[in-house]
Structures are given as C-alpha cells and as structure tokens.
C-alpha cells in the first residue's frame, strides 16, 4: 500500500513482477526509500495467480518453479512470508497413441525401468547424461548469480569504465575460466551444450524417440527456434538447475498458484516499508542532464527519485519511456536490433473432471497427473511444428506442455475439479495471413482436439477456458512481441551481450537508470537473479547516503 501523498523516493521500480519486487526488497533492506509502480491490478508480472472463474485459481502465465535462487528465499525470508513450493514427483509424463507412455521423476531406478521399456541402452545412458548436465550446471549457476562483466573491446567513446569495474569484471572472467577448467574432460561436451543444437546431442545420447522428444521439448519452450538450431542445447541445462523445488532439478508448483511468490515478496516489501502502487502506469522516465530525476505516470502525476530500476523490457524502457534524443545513437540502434521473436501461446482451462489418458486410464488423480505432460512424441514432430511457424502459420500439430497443478494443490479448484495449464509451441507472433484476434478460438480448438487424441474426455470436461495468443501476452503482460523472456535468448543475446554489448551490468547510458528484469543477464525464467543482481549494482553506485 502506498503511503498517502508521498511523491519522492530514493528509487522507483517500474514493474511489479518478481524481479522488480526482488530489487525493491533488497534496496529497502539497505535502507533506501522505494516505490514499485505496477501497471496492472495484480502483482507478479507473468507469475500471477488470478481467480479467472469463481473457485478456480489460475497461474495465468508462468506455471512451474525451480530456478528461484535459494539466496533470495533466505535473504528476504520468503518461506516465513508464506512461500511454499510443492515438489512434483513424477515430474514428466509423455503419453503415446500406441498405448505406451514414459514417466520420469526423482527416482533414478524407476526412471531406468521406464526408459528400458523403449531402450535398454538408453536406460544405461540416462544416468550418465543427467550426471553430465548436473556437473555443468553447477559450474554455470555462480555465473547466473552475479551481474555480467563488460569485457568486450568496444569504442571508448561509448562508455567510460572505471578501474574498479574493470578489476571486478576481470575477476568474474577469471572465476568463470577457473570454473570451466574444473570440468576437465567434460569441457568439450560442456561447450557443445552451451553453444550447440539440442537435436544432434540428444540423437547421439539416445535412440528412443519418446525419450529424445521428451527432453527436446525443454530446449524450445519460450523460444522461436528449431531443435536443430545452435543455442537450443543450452536450455537443456535448465531442467537440472535450481533447487527451489526441494532438490536439484526438481520443478515444483507454488501453493496457491504462481502468484504465491508475488504474495510472499509483497509481504517482505511491506515489512521493509516499500510503497507498492497498482494500476500505476508509467508514461515516461524523466531525466535532466543525463540523470534520472523521476517518472511521469499516465494519470499525469509525477514522482521524484534519483534512481529508476526498470523491470520491463528494453523496448519499453528505451523506446517508449525515454525520449530518443536522450540516448546515444549507437545505443538506440543496438536496442532497435534486439530480437523479440516469439512463438508461444498459453491456454488455461477449468475442468469438471480429471483428464483420463488412454495409455494410463484413471478417473481419479494418478501419479502421472502431477508432472508436466508432453504432447510431442518424436523429434520430427517438433521440427514439423516449428516448420509451420517458420512460415508464419500456427502449427497444425503444435507442441503442448501441459500441467495439472490442482492434482498436487487441491486448493486451486473445487473438489473433483481441476485447473489445467497448456503452454503451446509454435504459435508465431507474426502471421503470414490474418490476425490472432480472428483465429485464436480456432487455434485453441485445434490444441484441445490434439490433446483429446490422448485424453478423450477433456473436451467435454472443459467448463471455462482462456486463450492467450502471443499478441495477448504482449497486451496483458507488456511483453514485446509476446516474448516471455523479454528478448530471445540466443547466443547473440546472452551474458555479455544482454541486453546489448557494452551494457551487460544492468547500467544504462543515463545515470541512475538500471535494468532489473529479464531483459538483463541472466534472462528469463522465475529466477529472481536479474532483480538481485541489479540491486547489488545500484547499491554499489549509491550505497552511501551521500551518493543520494
């Protein structure tokens, strides 16, 4: 709740998503006066819970959690403030039309038994594959938990970097080098996973199509890329990163829906005396002599501050909220080239009964309902889905990643009923013909009909549905191009090049203006690292009261 009549703060955070709230909490914890401005009526950004229909609590956007940094949970005391993460086990279920299925979870022996139904050699290889990914992930995680360095030899006229930052950046690069050297014989495979394509790696490791396709889905979620595209293998590492689900690589549901994270962060912010203003849309970041001095709201009101931390994407921050003449030409040009290609849609459903899969019949909640349900039986199936989108057509047979969180958290729906989340690939933002508003219902019908091949009772069980096309994602959450990562996460837009080369440390050409959302390193996902890292850099610059 905003303090009545206050118009000046040390820092204003634009956007009440999880990263913005994390930044606000860390700044306030260090004694700064902070205000969070959220355009919508609900906090959380893409990680919200909304009661779309009476009795049904829906995670409208993001739907699972694992990457949230344990340090943030501890530092901000999120568990005492109500954050409860419910582990999922089994974690993955891939039904097939021939009556078989693949069920994977935390039990290594059970996983091998499941995989052996399709390939004994794959069952033997899978623990080695998981172990390799875990070893590499342990090396990468520290890189994600600090701001990125700016080591590139860019023109000196672009930015003046002091000796202190140069030394910090050198230490970060040395630490990364030493960590990589610790991989030993794993290094060549690590480099391939960081830069290569998912498909050839998975084909080399495994022979069973169902296992390959189950793992490959992780490589393209949220991206507009083929599994044969360089850079997609990096996302495979994400499924073994993070311990928020209770153990390494265990993805969980937030009790009460994903908005439970925002609720806990809001409580933390409240106790730290952060002002949070909902339905407070920003129209402009106000500057004077290349220094932020405040923000102008859409209702015409003005708030003064010395620091602005923007958790919205680079397009909105620099091309909507800032006058063009206030930024250097090279910076404006680089921002205009950021890729926001997107091909994701989201369908949220309220169901009157449990989905009954033909390959694993059950009218009640069964173990396979707990995890992510993959509708993508082969690698070629995923490639064909991408091929349609590549030419501006919604996939005829899209890739579906489905969750039924009410199977683990019954508080989300009335007794016996369920909420279902259906994340859809590939639905291109840019259509070759027509517009999304005209075809969204037909596309949703297509996705539901596809699921019905595997679970025939679903269409008749649907009581309510919500369809969020890429255009709806842009409108609802302020995601340029509908890109859920605030910018594509290809090799050209990661680490020292996120959001652009020379400005990877959350700072910008305007003094006092910082990026604290997924547009900055380390990028998308419900991780909180962007917000924490940005707060650390802000406090480095403005840590003393004299600096304010």
First-last Cα distance: 24 Å
Strand proportion, as a percent range, falls in 15-25%
Number of helices: 17
Name the quaternary structure.
Answer: single chain
Q: Give the overall shape.
A: globular
* pLDDT averaged residue by residue: 94
List unreliable stretches of 5+ residues. Answer: none
The Rg value, from CA coordinates, equals 23 Å
Number of strands: 19
Structural class: alpha/beta
The biggest sheet, with number of strands, parallel, antiparallel or mixed sense and barrel status, is: 7 strands, mixed
Strand order of the largest sheet: 7-6-15-16-17-14-18
DSSP helix fraction:
25-40%
Descriptive notes:
The protein is an alpha/beta fold. It has helices at residues 18-29, 70-75, 108-116, 120-144, 163-181, 187-195, 198-205, 209-220, 233-236, 259-271, 314-319, 329-336, 379-390, 436-452, 458-461, 470-477, 529-542, and strands spanning 11-14, 34-37, 49-53, 56-59, 85-87, 92-95, 101-104, 252-254, 275-277, 282-287, 292-297, 302-304, 307-310, 344-351, 372-375, 399-403, 418-425, 462-468, 513-515. The strands form 5 sheets. A 7-stranded mixed beta sheet has the order 7-6-15-16-17-14-18, sandwiched between helices. The longest helix is centred in the N-terminal third of the chain and has 25 residues, at 120-144.
What's the topology here?
Layout: E1 11-14, H1 18-29, E2 34-37, E3 49-53, E4 56-59, H2 70-75, E5 85-87, E6 92-95, E7 101-104, H3 108-116, H4 120-144, H5 163-181, H6 187-195, H7 198-205, H8 209-220, H9 233-236, E8 252-254, H10 259-271, E9 275-277, E10 282-287, E11 292-297, E12 302-304, E13 307-310, H11 314-319, H12 329-336, E14 344-351, E15 372-375, H13 379-390, E16 399-403, E17 418-425, H14 436-452, H15 458-461, E18 462-468, H16 470-477, E19 513-515, H17 529-542
Parallel strand pairs: 1-2, 1-13, 2-9, 6-15, 13-19
Antiparallel strand pairs: 3-4, 5-8, 6-7, 10-11, 11-12, 14-17, 14-18, 15-16, 16-17
Helix pairs in contact: 1-10, 1-17, 3-4, 7-8
């Amino acid at each position: 709740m905003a303090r009545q009549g206050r118009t000046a703060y040390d820092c204003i955070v634009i956007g009440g998503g999880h990263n913005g709230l994390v930044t606000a909490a860390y700044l306030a914890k260090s004694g700064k006066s902070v205000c969070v401005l959220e355009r919508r009526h609900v906090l959380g950004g893409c990680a919200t819970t909304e009661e779309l229909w009476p009795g049904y609590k829906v995670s409208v956007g993001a739907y699972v959690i694992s990457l949230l940094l344990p340090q943030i949970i501890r530092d901000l005391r999120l568990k005492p403030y109500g954050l409860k993460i419910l582990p999922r086990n089994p974690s993955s279920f891939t039904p097939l039309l021939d009556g078989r299925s693949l069920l994977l979870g935390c039990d290594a022996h059970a996983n091998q038994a499941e995989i052996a139904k399709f390939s004994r050699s794959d069952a033997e290889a899978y623990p080695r594959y998981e172990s390799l990914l875990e070893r590499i992930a342990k090396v990468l995680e520290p890189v994600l938990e600090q701001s990125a360095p700016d080591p590139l030899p860019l023109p000196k006229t672009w930015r003046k970097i002091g000796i202190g930052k140069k030394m910090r950046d050198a230490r970060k690069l040395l630490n990364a080098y030493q960590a990589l050297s610790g991989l030993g014989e794993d290094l060549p495979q690590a480099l391939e996973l960081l830069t290569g394509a998912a498909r050839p790696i998975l084909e080399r490791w495994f022979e069973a199509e169902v296992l390959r396709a189950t793992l490959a889905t992780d490589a393209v979620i949220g991206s507009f890329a083929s599994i044969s595209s360089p850079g997609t293998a990096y996302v495979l590492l994400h499924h073994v990163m993070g311990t928020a689900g209770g153990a390494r690589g265990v993805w969980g549901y937030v009790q009460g829906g994903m908005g439970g994270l925002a609720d806990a962060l809001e409580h933390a912010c409240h106790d730290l005396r952060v002002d949070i203003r909902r339905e407070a849309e920003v129209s402009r970041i106000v500057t004077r002599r290349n220094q932020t001095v405040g923000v102008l709201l859409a209702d015409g009101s003005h708030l003064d501050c010395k620091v602005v931390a923007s958790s919205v994407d680079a397009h909105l921050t620099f091309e909507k909220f800032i006058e063009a003449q206030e930024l250097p030409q090279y910076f404006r040009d680089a921002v205009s080239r950021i890729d926001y290609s997107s091909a994701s849609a989201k369908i949220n459903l309220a169901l009157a009964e449990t989905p009954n899969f033909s390959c694993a019949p059950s009218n009640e909640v069964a173990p396979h309902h707990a995890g992510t349900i993959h509708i993508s039986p082969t690698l070629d199936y995923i490639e064909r889905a991408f091929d349609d989108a590549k030419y501006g057509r919604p996939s005829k047979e899209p890739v579906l990643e489905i969750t039924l969180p009410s199977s683990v958290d019954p508080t989300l729906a009335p007794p016996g009923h369920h909420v279902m989340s259906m994340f859809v690939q590939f639905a291109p933002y840019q259509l070759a013909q027509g517009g999304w508003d005209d075809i969204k219902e037909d596309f949703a019908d297509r996705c539901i009909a596809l699921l019905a091949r595997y679970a025939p009772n679903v269409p008749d069980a649907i009581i309510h549905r919500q369809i969020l096309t890429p255009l709806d994602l842009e409108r609802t959450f302020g995601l340029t191009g509908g890109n859920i990562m605030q910018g594509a996460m290809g090799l050209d837009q990661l680490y020292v090049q996120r959001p652009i080369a020379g400005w990877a440390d959350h700072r910008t050409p305007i003094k006092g203006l910082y990026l604290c959302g997924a547009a900055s390193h380390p990028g998308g996902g419900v991780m909180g690292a962007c917000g924490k890292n940005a707060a650390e850099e802000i406090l480095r610059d403005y840590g003393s009261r004299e600096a304010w």
